[in-house]
Amino acid sequence: MDGIVLELQREALKQDGDILSLLRKAYLIARKLQLKDFGKWVNSELNGYDVQDNIPRYRHLTGEVKAWNPYHGWIPVVFDQDLGLDEHKSRDSIAALIDVYRNSDGHRAQVNFPAGINAMLNKTAPFQTKYALFIAVNQIFNIEESVRTAILEWAIVLEENGIIGEGMQFSKEEKEVAATTPIINNYTTNIFGDVSNSQMQQGTENSTQTQ
Fold it and tell me: How many CA atoms are closer than 13 Å to the CA of 92, on its beta-carbon side?
């Protein structure tokens, strides 16, 4: 029986593999090795990021701001200055993002702005309306692929440092190596950045979502 780390590698290599199953297995390994930072990242991918959490760079999405026109539908908005509203740092769980991707029209997803931003934009608008950011759905697909690649690379680092596991167990020596090896303990350091607000849904013409 192969160790769980090698199993994780094989699962990460499957293009059609279940990303949720992969994350759960990675979380199990992180908990058994007492790797708190990596375990926290995996848990955030599974359950979503909290307001105070940093958001990994691969979750930084860009798109086009549009306003809802009752006669013409969603229309592009042009600003006199850069307000940074064309960027979105997604906190959604990986399951929610996959659902958006699978149920989208294949081209775009919709991020609704919080009420405060809508109110600010409406101050200079000719009529009161709602605003949203529309992003290409391939950016959501790239989030899933980034997670899969990160787990694969992490599993390779574990193997390179002699951490394989026997079945679903790790030896005392393997746990000690995991606890004292900087490249393992600091694996998530370079993929995190700042935080922002808003929520995502599939790009329907008249859908709404509150926060």
Answer: 25
DSSP 192: B
Report the DSSP pairing between strands 87-89 and 131-136.
unpaired
What are the residue ranges of helices labelled H in 82-137? Answer: 94-103, 115-122
Taking residues 122-147, report their average pLDDT.
90
User: Percentage of the chain surpassing pLDDT 90?
Assistant: 59
Q: pLDDT at position 22, please?
A: 97
**Sheet of 131-136, strands arranged across:** 73-76, 64-69, 131-136, 108-112, 199-202
Rounded Cα distance between 78 and 87, Å, is 15
- DSSP-derived letter for residue 30 is H
3-state secondary structure of 19: helix
Burial 124-133 (b: 16+ CB within 10 A, else e): eeeeeebbbb
Which of 33-37, 45-49, 81-85 is least confident? 81-85
Extract the tokens encoding 78. Answer: 């042009």
* pTM of this prediction exceeds 0.90: no
Which tokens in the block code for residue 186?
Answer: 């600091």
74, 83, 75, 65: which is closest to 132 by C-alpha?
A: 65
The type of residue at 12 is A
